[in-house]
Amino acid sequence: MDVGDESANRWELSKENIQPLKHGRKAAVLSVVLNESATQKLNATMHVFEEELRTYSGDDPLDVWYRYILWVEQSYPKGGKDGNIKKLIEKCLSSVYGNAETNEKYKNDPRFLDIWLKYADLCARPVEVYQTLEAKGICTLLTDFYINWSWEMEKAGNYKRADIIYQNGMQIRAEPADVLQEAHKKFQMRVTRSTMEGRIVEQESNYSEPQRTVLNSLKSKGHGNRVPNERVGSSVVGPAGRVSQEETKKNAGGPSFSIFRDTGSSDDHSRVSAGESRGGSLPVGAAVNQENVKNPGQWTKKKVPQKTCNVVSVDDLGLYQKPAFSVHADENISLPTATPSKLPQTSNVLATCKDYKDWHVEMFIAEPFNPKVQPQYCKHKVYCGNEEFSFEELKAAQYFKKEKEEKKKNEELEKMQDMLKKQEELIQQLLQDRLNQQKQEQAQQSMSRSLYQDSWIAINKSVNASVNVSNFLDESSTSNLLQCQPATACLSSNEASVIRDQTPTTHGANPTPQDNSQCNSSSNSRGLNLTDPTINTKMAVNVINDIWSASLYQADSQQDIIESDVGSDMGTQPVAVEAPPFTILQDEEIDKDKQSKETTTAAFSIYTDNSGDNNGTDKTKPSQPFSIFQDGKNTNQAKDPNDMYFEDQDENRPPPGMVQQREYRQVSGVLQPAADIPFLPLEDQESQKESEILCEDKGPKEELVFDDDLNDIVPLDGVSFADFTLKMPNNPEAFAKMANAASTPAPWSLGHVPQATVNGDDFTMAVMKVNNHFPLIEDKQKEDSEELMPPPVKQLPPTSFPAPVSEVKLSPIMEASREYRSSSSSSSGYSTTSTTLGGHSAHGLSQHGGFSMSTQMSRTRQHCNTQQECGLEIGVTAHTGDFTKSGYLADKSRGESMADSRPGIVASQNAPWSEEKEVSSFDAHQVAAMLMDMDDMKPLPMANSTKLDVREPKILLTSKENNQNFPEKINPFAEEIVQVVLSKLEEPVEARGGFVTSHGKLPFIKTNSQITLGSEMFHVRRIRGEGAYAKVYQASTIDPMNVTIMPTEEEEDDENEDDEKQMILKVQKPPCPWEFFICHELRQRLKSKAYPVNMLDSVMRINRGYFFSNGSILVNQYHKYGSLLDVMNG
Amino acid sequence: MFTPSTFGSSGSGFSGFGLSTSTPASANPMKDFEVVNPPDDSVQCMAFSPPSIPQDFLVAGSWDNNVRCWEVQRDGKTIGKAQQTMGGPVMDVAWHDDGSKVFMASADKTVHCWDLGSNQKMQVAQHDAPVKTVHWIKAPSYSCIMTGSWDKTLKFWDTRNPQPIMTINLPERCYCADVEYPMAVVGTANRHLIVYQLETQPQEFKQIESPLKYQHRCVAIFKDKKGAGAPAGFALGSVEGRVAIQYIVTASPRDNFTFKCHRSNGTSNGFQDIYAVNDIKFHPVHGTLATVGSDGRFSFWDKDARTKLKNSEAMEQPISCCAFNHNGQIFAYAVSYDWSKGHEYFNPQKKNYIFLRSCYDELKPRSR
């Protein structure tokens, strides 16, 4: 940190010394370069470049120059003498241009042009440079040339000329043509806009009435050297110290003859350039403007000679015809300042000063060019860049280069030999390891078996003993693993994390540490007895770890305290007791897996499985041993959601490394069918119990935390609903309208439980407040697994009986409510733009608006529903109340929601099942959706109008609940949230169509090169955009055989693929699976919601995402009109 | 000891002497004595043994990483005596004042001391870049070697100590240096010139604005004729055919001057070719100087009379370096490629020569 601070400081301190660059500076380079001690390093690097310049023997000499120039540009931010970039560029240009061969070769090389452009930027009069370039035909086939030239003219306000330049470029067919056209269009746009805004004023206004200016010296008249009354015009001598342009112009009045101007000027130019292109000298060097340079002098005594000639301003130069001849300018004309005639008299006092910073000597003093003299040495090499080299140095450089190459060759040879040797050894080692592993595993199994059988009684008695055993086993197993595969080297740590992971689980089940030993040991012993025949050592270790960690666990957070209360209230002891059977069964399954695979990775996944299952099993009720066969997560949900919440939260405390494991677990969850149906009987049983628990718990619990809030808790009556209904009616018409606009199916709009969702919102808000929104999301994700496909089938009439209503799976509405929440949260950052829409086609504009409207529609729907169906809420609210009660007691605002939900709780005691469903519908999808929506909606100011209507009630609502400030808390860009959400997905990102995980590092992407990603080959054409975290390239797929862009589950709406296979590669560093996920998810949902088909078009589609260890590449279609944002901004 | 006559006579009657018959006349247009077994690659530096030993030994360092030592006999015959190999091309050689050791500066960034008696070499200096110059400094109070390197430092070494006595930073890479106690002059890249005084301890004396317009290539100190032979100034050779005579303390600025040299006089195609001045040496007795250039000629000059004493015929190759023996009887010059046109123009087919010339009379200054 210190280093970082220091560098930041340095940067702060020397900000004003840094010359800005068009394309910016690299912060990393800056921080290094600004360090004063870096000078030596810089010099060394520069010397290396200089050496390379002279020793380069390849066929691309410009490459060295280019790299050198770029380096100097970045490394000498102060400009000036240190880097001497201007001189360097001049040298480069003249050396390249001077050589006929290289000149021909690089005539239209973009790098060459880039150097020219840099030079133009450095010049006082860039227009001259461009004109010369055109005249000499250098780089005239490159688009950038015209763009920059035109920009220069545009800056000067010469729009006509700028336009002509563009047209010239297009006429000459500069490459790439589309870029030029685009730029031209943008230019036109700018012009029209500024015309409309009145920024372009007729240029004549510049030369209006002569005005008095300050500090003008005036001509004196008459006797007393009086100054005339009229102090403008001819009486003005000129401004002090400089030439008055206006003045001269006015006096001049034009020459008495007319200059002949050829109208076909461009033809003329080309003719000139043809004649001149060879042998003509370039206008580099200060020699160009020599006669125009004013030497510094005493300004008071300076007399400005008044010449009456037509002064042409620099900007108008382009309007004038260049003469068909070139004025010869000597390259070697010495600079006037070159030889200071006097030396600072050096004395012995100065001699002690060993600092030569102020001793500036010209590298050489150019003699006037003498065509009859030829230096007979390699002058071009001696005086190549910014340094001079002696013959010996040149030779030495070459000598060392050769030496290096030889060394390299030798090293490579040796390396190859070493590699071969190592490979052989490795193979042998692997073989041996295999053998060892098998042996050890067998030994371990037998050992563990005996251990368990023998020592379980002892373990029951003392946890310590079990700890020892587990330790022992742990070590042995890990060491074994370590031997097996290098990839699992980190396994021990993983194991540790797993253990940590499990601690909360067990803890949740066993609230008091004192109880733990008893509970766990007893339960485990049972389980072990059952599984004895098939038990796997590792699973056993795991179980022991459970015990161990649980017993050692210390309740650390307030939440845990609450949780433990809940747990104890609910009588978790029996739960824990019952847990083992499941674990055992799981073990068996995994055992099979493991035995079949016998790889450490398998073991690894087993761990995670185990932890997940443990969660479930630990919590399942004692009376349902058969629930084994159900999804562990279902059982989870069957239990108290509060519990779940805490466990999940605890689980997510471990470091990010855990995420990986999550994913594994998710996979396993996916593999197991989401079993909604088998639950029914179980639920019934459970529900009764739970309701009992709930009833019992709720009262005291709330009292515990909400002593003051209790007054708010009102029995179910009209008042509580009034809260909801009150919020809604503000804008019923708007809602209705929107419903129509979105053309949502009627049944959908009649979704019945939106009230619940409202509560849900409340809940999330509360969570956010209390827990910094991570746990919330996890929570939802956990539950989402159950919600795999919310069947929007059961649409009940509005007046239906409460219980069945609650039974209906209304997840879409829940989502909507999420979105609603998200929108409210996003309202703060509404105007910011998001990049997710980068590739959208232009016609998506309207569609997109429609889309965002739809999300709002769902909102309105909810509100409508709240209005109408008060009765419906009962079950739902009950659930949510339950939910909130359990987790977020600390929250103040929740008191109100509690009040709302209170009646529901009472009512819903007979419908706990529905409750559970509701819980489950808070899922990662929703969270994701809400985050995504935030992203998506921002760039759509269009939606504002419609939104405004909606927002009103929303705001009302939030204010009612005192939750206004919560929405800001979710930051969709927070890495942690993203991580958590991604890791909790029920359909992991990795499993989604188009996701390609690639090991290794991001390949280096260069324009005009080919890269292979997976099975696809791309020809990267050019860079289209660049941001802080990503670069966007335009590319085309090369092999038509490989262009199976989208996997089989291609949507029915045929997005017409561009015929040219134009693709956009978004290269992100670090990898951003989030974007991929969001786009994918959004599309999926849009698809499943039967929206008008074309809506999909407005959403970015990522054909493929390649994910590397240090970056990711998203491939999607190229839309030539750019993004919506472009359209909006344009 | 040589007597002028001995060496001179042997020079004139060279046909009978140890000149290998294989050497074509074109390679030796001046008909001088040829040193046997010349280096295989370009000769970078040469030095004659100091007056402290009776015989004349010549050492030459070359780009083939070797330093060779010959004994030069009175009759002009040379006998190869010994050879040492360095880790890189040899950039400079210098004799210890007692004539027992030779210091060799190499591009391998080290300086080694070669004890001729035992034929052992040991490292005595280390730089961060190739070492371009090495000189032995014999002061009443101390003795050391001075090394100048492309790492932009000038270092002073007691040969028994791995650490330098003193390090002086240079404004640029050291290109050339000369030492004549109590004065040292160093020419660097980017045309810097610094004069040091060596009394009591090395100290910068003066920074001098270069009198030349182009790169410094070689420098040599000359002594005051009237005084007690104290160093009075130096001659500086440029990469572009010019030599400057510069006094440290001048009565009038007109004492300093530059003169053109090593240029062809518009011979064939009407162009005047300008060549680099590769080396300058002052005659130890007469105070006149010899320059050698890329054009393959050597020239003798009288700086006080501002006249050219002699101009040689052109050799097949450039003359890369030259040396006078301690009494000024012998002028040695090495004909080998000086890399002036880049390594691409190096012709390995061409043989390298070192020639010895009896020069005492030719370098006598004009009597005024």
Notes on the structure:
- Chain B: It is found in: Cytoplasm; Nucleus.
- The complex is a heterodimer of chains A (1130) and B (368).
- Chain A contains 43 helices and 10 strands.
- With 1130 residues, chain A is mainly α.
- In chain A, helix 9 runs antiparallel to helix 10.
- Chain A is globular, with a radius of gyration of 39 Å.
- Chain B is mainly beta and 368 residues long.
- Chain B is built from 1 helix and 29 strands.
- Chain B has one helix at 4-12, and strands spanning 33-34, 43-48, 56-62, 66-72, 78-85, 90-95, 101-106, 110-115, 120-126, 131-138, 143-149, 153-157, 166-169, 174-180, 183-188, 192-197, 203-209, 216-223, 231-238, 242-247, 257-260, 272-274, 277-282, 289-293, 298-302, 307-311, 319-324, 330-335, 353-358.
- In chain B, strand 16 and strand 17 form a beta hairpin.
- The longest helix of chain B has 9 residues, at 4-12.
- The relative contact order of chain B is 0.13.
- Classes of the chains: A mainly alpha (1130), B mainly beta (368).
- Chain A binds chain B through residues 343, 346, 348, 350-352, 354, 356, 359, 361-367, 372-378, 381-383, 387-396, 398-400, and chain B through 44, 63, 88-89, 91, 107, 130, 132, 150, 168-171, 173, 175, 189-192, 203-210, 213-215, 217, 239-241, 266, 270-276, 294-295, 338-343.
- Strand 3 (373-375) of chain A pairs parallel with strand 22 (272-274) of chain B, so a sheet runs across the interface.
